[in-house]
Structure formats: structure tokens, C-alpha cells
Write a structure and sequence with these properties.
664 residues; ten-stranded mixed beta sheet; nine-stranded parallel beta sheet; 17 helices; binds beta-D-galactopyranose
């Protein structure tokens, strides 16, 4: 076993432009002390690099890059396009974005650019060209950091630049205005368009917008940001740069369809800020990390940003508990990351983030934060190279951006929060200590034993065919309520509901049956008790009226409107099974349904007998066990060896926030 993974990056955002140059040598010295191997440089340095149009000042950047290089610190060089300087919007106000009411987002903060603005794109291209041509061959530069968190703060732009680009985008998508009218169903409410020039972004309107227009505007918004990324990526490559190119993601971030972006990322990088006060936030960050691994399963991803300690942007910014930062960092490594970086290196003296923790705090090196940063740096340096192929999970959950946009559109039987519903299934798997991958329905699902498709409202033909093929080939497919409702234009298909999966599921669906809020007045049913072969569970939000054709009833509604009618069914299809759950169970119900399906599919936990608050993650043959609870636990891990020492392990103790990596 070789000691020390050269591939493990450690560091953070470095903003030397905020500091006098005299401090830089101290920065580099401290970075070395902390085990920093790479910094993200210049993310918000546009106004420093280009003080006015046509004028570039690279002398300072040359000096800082050289200094880092001499100190052995590699550079993830930013293109600096995320925050245009004040001169740009003063000279070209059309680069400023607008909200749905036509209000402008003015300068004075950051990220105030309209992604579709041709002027913004020209200015960004000029900046990136200058940076890329200057540094493409600099030996310090090991990665390119395009822009920053595309879409953050401004989820959509409704400006005139967006209007023009949306029209052009629609023309490419539909080819003719008739095709658009057909897809959007515009004879409804007299919305029929005579030309693309009559169409607007879904700006403020008297009542509900056309759902097809809303869905296409989501697609367009993601594409507009993605085009900005691609433009910069192409410029960097054209300048001769050969280093990997990335932009930092934000986990499950609704405005940007990362499935579509991922193939154009050489490496996936992600920013994550779980709330240290929330005892369950490690599960949300687990979800995020598994999603990042799933986006590009053959290449380790990087945790590009996290906080060493407290944030500044929640109403209350609790500090991280001792050990919590390391535990969450190792969660990322355990789930496929080959790098741990922070926002930011040195805590700011001025500006909106002066209370945000950093690797080097205001109070300096005598702090707990610094000690923990140094300790983590040396622990990461000690790790042997970890397995790089990540197709270990036998269970996958379908997570789909287009569905997210469509299912949260207006005027549905009930308001649903897609992310929290998918998170519910993830949480259940996490508590059962079963590893999850995320997939799209249309992906190649052959490696999995179980695929769960929660609330897959928008189902494409390709997605449906793939799910059917998965079950036919011997998999267990679990589909849950409000799935297979509309096609990719958010329209019902002929034949009602479950038109694509009904036969495989062996059922048909009569109606959705929204449940009214618990505790509300009125005649509506609030919860849906269900009796199953494996116990009682409770349905929430929807109690669908389904009818069995060929399926076996595994659970039935008890009491209420649907008393005695099927709630959970199982159908033999090919050599596999297709399950349907006609409701959205509460957390306990989700765990018992998932547990039942996993048992039927003979999926065992990664380790037995662990409490809920202990996490276990698999990376090839390496298991990482992390105690996120407040009590010490004993973990039995027979048949494993300690990753660092190679010693045989049978059982070990973990204090709160302690972790251990073993091989099996
Ligand atoms: C991120 C951003 C960083 C910093 C950080 C603070 O969204 O990319 O620049 O603002 O949040 O938590």
C-alpha cells in the first residue's frame, strides 16, 4: 500500500487582492504548515485584473502565482467572470439582469450579470481570453475554475436580453411556431402565438402561466448559464490549456440541470454548507455528495467549498462542534471526493463575509479552527490512494431536473417539494445503511438491483422504456404516487395516467386524491393509514385510487375514502418485479416500504447493527464509518482491516464525530 495520495487536494479560495502584498509570503508559509496543496485563485478579482475596459493589470497576479508556485502550492485558476466590475454596468447597463417584475438587480453586491446579454458575454470572453492566454502554460495552474456557482443568487433572468435569447432558443427547439403552439397547448386561454417575436419570458402576469412556457423557461435558463460555461471552456482550450476545467456546483440546485452539464466538466466540483446545528444535515450533505459522484462516476469529484466553522448567511450561524468539520470532510472523501477545499483561506477584514469562518481565522493560529485545519491537512496527506471507480451501489434513486421543474409547476392536485421527497427516500436508505447512486430514468440501469422512482411526474418515452427494461431484466422497480403523469412537454398523453408504466405495474390509476393538511378544518381526509404484509404505515399528501389488473396487492388503505383499496402493489414483469406505492409515506413508512423491497431484492446493509446516527459509506473496497451522533458507539466490522495500519479489525469505538476507514 503506497502512503500519501498525490491525488488528494487540500486548500481553499484564496483572495490575495483583499490583502496588502506584504502578507502574501506569510499566507504561503501558513498554507504549507496546514498541508494546503491547491488554492482557487481570483474568483472575484475581475475589477482588480481589469480596472477599465481594455486595460489589464496582471503584474500582481503574476507575482502571486509565482509565489504560490515557489511554495509548492498548485493553482485552480478562476476566470473571474462571476462578478462584473462597476465600470461594466455603468457603461453597459444592459448587462444587468431583471426579475419577473422588471426590477433590475443593481451592482453593489456580486453576480449581477444577465447570462444571455451579448455584451456581458463579450466582456467575459475578453477577460477569459486574456487570462487563459497568459496562464495556460504556467506550471502552477493545475485546474481552471470557470465563473462561480452559476445561477446562485439569481435563479432566473427576465430582462430584455433574456427575452430575445428565449425567443431564439424556442425557435431552435421547435423549428416552427405551430410546433410550439402544439406543445404548449396555446388554444387554451387564447394564447396562440403568430410568431416567436410575440413570446416573453414568464414575467409577472395576472394569473397562472402556461405550464409548457414555464417548463421551457427553466430549460432555457439552465441552458443560458451552460452556454456561458461552454463559451469560457472553449476559450481556455483555444488558448492551449490542457488542465481540467470545471465550475463549482451547488448540490441539487434547481436552476441548473447538472445531468446535462456534467459531461462538459472534466471534474465535478461542489460547494456544500450543511447547517452544523441540524442533527440531520449530514444526511442532506450525504445526498449531495452521492449526487456529485453519480454525475460523473468514473472521475473523483472535489469538495470545492465548505466552511471551517460558522457561516455568515443564516439567521443564526452556529459554530461547528469540535470534530464536525473533519467528520463532514471525510464524508465527502468516503463518497468519492479526492479533494477538500474551503471558502476561504484567510478570513476577510472587510465586506459582507467578514464573519464567515476561514482556514486562517481573524484570531490566527492559536485557534481551534486552525488546529483542526492543520490536523485534517495531515490526515488527508496520510491517506493511501483510494479506489477511483464508483459503481458500488446496488440501489439507485431516480433524480431528474426536468421532472423537478415540471412537478413544482402551478395548478397541480397538491403542492409538492420534489427535493424533500427524494431526500426522504435517501434518508431511509441512509438509516438502513445502504449505499445509493442517483440516476436518470433513461440511464443504463443494468448494474442495479433496485431502482426507486419517487414522484416521477414527467416521464419521457426513453425514461419509461428504460425503467420497463430494468424490471423485465430482473430488477425491482419501485414507482411511487404521482408518477408517469405527463410527457416532456408537460402534457397528458392519450389514455389518462400511467400510460407508460401501467402495464408493467399491472395497475391503472383512476384519480390522485389529494389529502388535506393535518389539523385543517373540513371534510377532506388528512392521512391515509395503510395495512401491509409487513405492518402498518401512514400515507400523506396523496391517496391515489388505483385498480389492479395483474398486480398482487401488498398493502391496502384502511379506513377513509379508499378503505380496502390497494395502496402498495407488486407485479411480476419479465424476470423482475414492478412495485407501485399509491401514496407518499411518512418517514417511518418510507423506511418500512424501502426495507421491504430491499429485503425482497436481498440487499443487505453495508454493516449490521449500526444506529441511525452512524453513517457508513462505500468507496470500492473501502468503508468509512462516521459517528454523527452525540454518544459514543461500538461498531462491529468483522472481516475488515484498518485502512491506515492494515491491522485486522473486528470492532471499534467511535466517539461523536469520530470516523474510521476500513477495507474489506
Ligand atoms: C458560496 C460562494 C463563496 C462564498 C460562500 C460563503 O456560495 O461561492 O464565494 O460566498 O458561498 O458561504
Amino acid at each position: 500500500m503506497t502512503k500519501g495520495s498525490a491525488d488528494m487536494h487540500y486548500g481553499g479560495d484564496y483572495n490575495p487582492e483583499q490583502w496588502p502584498e506584504a502578507i502574501w509570503p506569510d499566507d504561503v508559509a501558513r498554507m504549507r504548515e496546514a498541508g494546503v496543496t491547491m488554492v482557487s485563485l481570483g474568483i472575484f478579482a475581475w475589477s482588480r485584473i481589469q480596472p477599465e475596459e481594455g486595460v489589464f493589470d496582471f503584474d500582481w497576479l503574476d507575482r502571486v502565482i509565482d509565489l504560490l508556485h515557489e511554495g509548492g502550492i498548485a493553482v485552480d485558476l478562476a476566470t473571474a467572470t462571476a462578478s462584473p466590475p462597476p465600470w461594466a454596468s455603468a457603461k453597459y447597463p444592459e448587462i444587468l439582469p431583471q426579475d419577473a417584475n422588471g426590477a433590475t438587480y443593481w451592482p453593489g453586491s456580486r453576480q449581477q450579470f444577465a447570462p444571455s446579454s451579448p455584451v456581458y458575454r463579450r466582456l467575459a470572453a475578453e477577460l477569459v481570453t486574456a487570462i487563459a492566454e497568459r496562464y495556460a502554460e504556467h506550471p502552477a495552474v493545475v485546474m481552471w475554475h470557470v465563473n462561480n456557482e452559476y445561477g446562485c443568487h439569481l435563479n432566473a433572468d427576465f430582462s430584455d436580453a433574456a427575452r430575445d435569447a428565449f425567443r431564439a432558443w424556442l425557435e431552435v427547439r421547435y423549428g416552427s411556431i405551430d410546433a410550439l403552439n402544439d406543445a404548449w397547448g396555446t388554444f387554451f386561454w387564447s394564447q396562440r402565438y403568430g410568431s416567436f417575436g410575440e413570446i416573453y419570458p414568464p414575467r409577472k402576469a395576472p394569473y397562472s402561466h402556461n405550464p409548457g412556457q414555464l417548463l421551457d423557461f427553466h430549460r432555457f435558463t439552465s441552458d443560458a448559464l451552460f452556454e456561458c460555461y461552454l463559451m469560457e471552456k472553449n476559450i481556455i482550450r483555444a488558448a492551449g490549456a490542457v488542465q481540467p476545467i470545471t465550475t463549482n456546483f451547488m448540490g441539487a440546485f434547481k436552476p441548473a440541470n447538472y445531468w446535462q452539464w456534467a459531461p462538459e466538466m472534466d471534474v465535478i466540483t461542489d460547494d456544500a454548507y450543511p447547517d452544523p446545528n441540524d442533527p440531520e444535515s449530514f444526511r442532506a450533505s450525504g445526498f449531495q455528495r452521492d449526487l456529485m459522484r453519480s454525475l460523473k462516476p468514473d472521475v473523483p469529484w472535489l469538495l470545492m467549498e465548505q466552511a471551517t466553522n460558522a457561516l455568515n448567511w443564516r439567521p443564526t450561524n452556529a459554530p461547528k462542534a469540535p470534530g464536525q468539520m473533519a467528520a463532514l470532510s471525510m464524508q465527502a472523501v468516503a463518497r468519492g471526493a479526492d479533494g477538500i477545499l474551503f471558502f476561504q483561506w484567510r478570513q476577510s477584514q472587510a465586506g459582507a463575509e467578514k464573519f464567515h469562518s476561514a482556514m486562517l481565522p481573524h484570531a490566527g493560529t492559536r485557534t481551534r479552527t486552525w488546529r483542526e485545519v492543520v490536523a485534517l491537512g495531515s490526515e488527508l496527506a496520510e491517506l493511501p490512494a483510494l479506489p477511483a471507480g464508483f459503481r458500488d451501489a446496488r440501489v439507485a434513486i431516480v433524480f431528474d431536473w426536468e421532472n423537478w421543474w415540471a412537478i413544482e409547476s402551478t395548478d397541480h392536485p397538491i403542492v409538492l417539494n420534489y427535493l424533500s421527497l427524494v431526500q426522504g427516500w435517501y434518508n431511509a436508505a441512509s438509516k438502513l445503511h445502504v449505499q445509493i447512486d442517483f440516476v436518470r430514468a433513461s440511464d443504463d440501469l443494468r448494474g442495479y438491483r433496485v431502482v426507486v422512482a419517487p414522484q416521477l411526474y414527467l416521464l419521457t418515452d426513453a425514461g419509461a422504456a428504460s425503467l420497463r427494461a430494468f424490471a423485465e431484466a430482473g430488477g425491482d422497480l419501485l414507482v411511487t404516487a404521482f408518477s408517469d403523469v405527463v410527457d416532456e412537454a408537460d402534457r397528458f398523453r392519450d389514455g389518462g395516467y400511467l400510460t407508460q408504466l401501467g402495464e408493467a405495474l399491472g395497475i391503472w390509476l383512476e384519480d390522485f386524491g389529494a389529502l388535506v393538511p393535518v389539523g385543517s378544518a373540513g371534510l377532506g381526509q388528512q392521512l391515509a393509514p395503510i395495512t401491509t404484509e409487513f405492518g402498518e404505515i401512514t400515507g400523506t399528501l396523496l391517496a391515489e385510487e388505483i385498480h389492479v389488473d395483474t398486480a398482487t396487492v401488498v398493502g391496502a388503505f384502511t379506513g377513509g375514502r379508499l378503505d380496502g383499496q390497494p395502496a402498495l402493489t407488486r407485479n411480476a414483469v419479465g424476470s423482475g418485479r414492478a412495485w407501485y406505492l399509491a401514496t407518499i409515506p411518512d418517514a417511518a413508512g418510507t423506511a418500512s416500504v424501502l426495507g421491504h423491497v430491499l429485503e425482497a431484492a436481498e440487499i443487505a446493509p453495508l454493516l449490521d447493527g449500526l444506529p441511525d446516527t452512524v453513517e457508513v459509506a462505500q468507496r470500492g473496497d473501502v468503508l468509512t464509518v462516521i459517528n454523527h451522533g452525540t454518544e459514543a458507539v461500538t461498531v462491529s466490522a468483522k472481516g475488515t482491516v484498518d485502512l491506515l495500519t492494515g491491522d485486522t479489525v473486528t470492532a471499534f469505538e467511535l466517539e461523536p464525530f469520530e470516523y474510521r476507514m476500513v477495507r474489506r
